[in-house]
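Quick sanity check, ubiquitinyl hydrolase 1:
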Amino acid sequence: MEGASNGGMLYHEVQESKLCAVHCVNTVLQGPFFSEFDLAALASDLDRRERQMMLQAGGDFLPDPDESHNVSLDGDFSIQVLEKALEVWDLQVIPLNSPVAEPAQIDPELENAFICHLQNHWFCIRKVNGEWYNFDSLYAAPEHLSKFYLSAYLISLRGSGWSIFLVRGNFPKECPIASSESSNGYGQWLSPEDAERITKSCNSTQRTAPGSSQIRQFSDSYMQYGGGGLSLDEDDEDFKAAIAASLTDSATAVKDIPADVLDDENKKSGEENIRE
């Protein structure tokens, strides 16, 4: 069992626009470590590398330089972006159905975190201070999960079409709760008692007992926002512009790179992949 972190507090982010990937990464890390702009920069770098590889391969088909496979204009990020963000903290993202994750399928309570994905929505199930919580950003507070219910819940999610990823590595132990620089505007720190009180209040008016009905209700809530949360409003136009600009910059940078530089870059990338 891991030691108490962040003074026993839980870090939770409530859904903002289509930024569930940001919320998911931060609740895995238990702190506001990333903003949407951080993930957009990672997405831009991934797009640049992908275009370089395709140009180097000399294929007949090249991706549209104004399109991204890793971030949409409304802020939805790919699994590759989440992987890169968590790699910064030496955390590995592993599909739960892979052979290496077989022990987690049998005894999920022995792990520390899972990432769940369905139709552009991401959320995290995380063990904090020895207890499991569902940190879905569509919930007002993290919902406690018993160790006995955890396995059944993961099975139910997979049966409902969710993709589950295991997260392994050395998780950050502390985040400076009081630091204003460590806030992205979406998160809140809650004691387990406060989280339980908020969850019970919401359950009494919105939800029934946990189980498959809860998953169906979540799907209904999720789909009413068009499959990924609320639409971006005018306050998010800067973020949309930043994504568009990053895509343009990435495309221009690849276009202007000499062939010999591309050769060197891809050789280095290949060597890095071999080492990994």
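Posting the structure with no commentary besides this: The chain is about 45% helix and 15% strand.
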